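[step 3/7] inverse_fold.run input=structure_tokens len=416
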């Protein structure tokens, strides 16, 4: 390894979340985690093991620990590395062979990327989140709409977002086919980073932040593609099909494939409805679910847990629903406990997990849906089998997930 000092590892995809000291049951997952531990020990790579107070999902702990900085180039063997772009870093997922190359040379060969601007005007309405914004974008441009591009998210609505919300936005850039997503560093960025571990201090902080503030697109810059969204017109979104682009506002109905002009889109919609066991014209609010999952690198930060708790406070999870809430990191869980969110979840009847990890999002561990089960999930992907063989996933925001848990059907908090 050329630069172990510029490398960090964490256990997230394969780890159990029921308890930090639980033995990994799946043999393949256990072998993978043990191999990671052996390799990190051999090459001197810092490893955040299950049970470490800094452990968690890689895209949550990077910013949390101050490992992510504006202007960096960050790579990881996970497509949702785009999350880190919220800090003005060029961050993207790479394949296993590319990981080997980076570890050996600290470089990666890439084709030239194209530039795309997504300008979001005005502000999001009450109850509408960054998750709804990105689902609205993908439903508009499609899952290949940003293929080969780096998206810069800009405009008044983006500038008004918290860092957690910006991370959600950049996280799902990959679901639009984008190579990476970026938000220019500003006061919100610096306020989030200041004082975190691994951040510069004193005069070094002043010098670094002066540079970070310069990382902005020039006035009049030309993009290969531009999209403009009006934030004030958006509502909570939910997915109905088997890719994030197959999403509609929650007050809409399941679309009829016959209404789609493109033959390929019609065929894809027909296949998706067959898999999801949905009929055209069904109101999204009439879709009942078996499981509600709040977690994943998209929506497992403290802001997401607070939003869910605000909906659940004083209410109970429907008896027909199993609700699982998994923090994105050990630090997120500790903060949630300090704020009393764990009591809110317990009183509502939700299962707030003791350990952090990817959990049901990736289904590479013990958390997975059974064949035919339907979930409202804050994950980022809903393709066939994503959350377990034969699973059916509706992508939603944390507030919609919490409201759905109360009623047992896809529900907006405003409906309560």
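[step 3/7] decode complete -> sequence:
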């Amino acid at each position: 390894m050329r630069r172990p000092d510029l490398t960090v590892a964490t256990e997230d995809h394969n780890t159990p979340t029921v308890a930090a000291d639980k033995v990994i049951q799946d043999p393949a997952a256990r072998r993978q985690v043990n191999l990671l531990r052996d390799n990190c020990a051999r090459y001197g790579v810092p490893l955040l093991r299950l049970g470490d107070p800094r452990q968690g999902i890689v895209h949550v702990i990077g910013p949390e620990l101050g490992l992510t900085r504006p202007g960096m180039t960050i790579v990881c063997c996970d497509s949702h590395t785009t999350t880190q772009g919220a800090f003005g870093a060029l961050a993207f997922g790479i394949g296993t062979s590319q990981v080997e190359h980076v570890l050996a040379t600290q470089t990666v060969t890439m084709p030239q990327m194209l530039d795309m601007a997504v300008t979001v005007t005005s502000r999001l309405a009450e109850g509408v989140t960054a998750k709804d914004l990105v689902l609205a974008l993908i439903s508009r441009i499609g899952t290949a709409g940003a293929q080969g591009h780096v998206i810069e998210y800009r405009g008044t609505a983006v500038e008004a977002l918290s860092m957690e919300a910006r991370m959600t936005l950049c996280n799902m850039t990959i679901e639009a086919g984008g190579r990476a997503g970026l938000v220019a560093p500003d006061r919100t960025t610096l306020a989030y980073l200041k004082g975190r571990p691994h951040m510069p201090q004193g005069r070094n902080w002043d010098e670094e932040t002066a540079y970070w503030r310069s990382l902005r697109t020039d006035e009049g810059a030309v993009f290969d593609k531009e999209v403009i969204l009006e934030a004030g017109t958006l509502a909570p979104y939910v997915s109905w099909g088997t890719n994030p682009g197959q999403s509609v506002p929650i007050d809409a109905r399941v679309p009829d494939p016959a209404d789609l002009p493109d033959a390929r889109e019609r065929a894809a919609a027909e296949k998706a409805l067959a898999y999801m066991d949905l009929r055209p014209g069904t109101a999204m609010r009439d879709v009942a679910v078996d499981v509600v999952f709040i977690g994943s690198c998209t929506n497992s930060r403290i802001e997401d847990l607070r939003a869910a708790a605000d909906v659940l406070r004083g209410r109970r999870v429907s008896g027909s629903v199993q609700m699982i809430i998994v923090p994105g990191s050990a630090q997120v869980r500790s903060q949630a406990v300090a704020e009393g969110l764990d009591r809110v979840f317990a009183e509502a009847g939700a299962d707030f997990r003791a350990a952090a990890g990817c959990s049901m999002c990736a289904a590479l561990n013990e958390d997975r849906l059974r064949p035919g089960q339907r979930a409202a999930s804050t994950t980022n992907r809903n393709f066939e089998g994503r959350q377990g063989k034969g699973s059916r996933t509706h992508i939603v925001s944390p507030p919609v997930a919490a409201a759905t848990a109360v009623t047992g059907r896809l529900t907006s908090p405003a409906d309560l």
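[step 4/7] annotate
The CA atoms of residues 204 and 210 lie 10 Å apart.
Residues 237-415 form a domain with the Aconitase; domain 3 fold (CATH 3.30.499.10).
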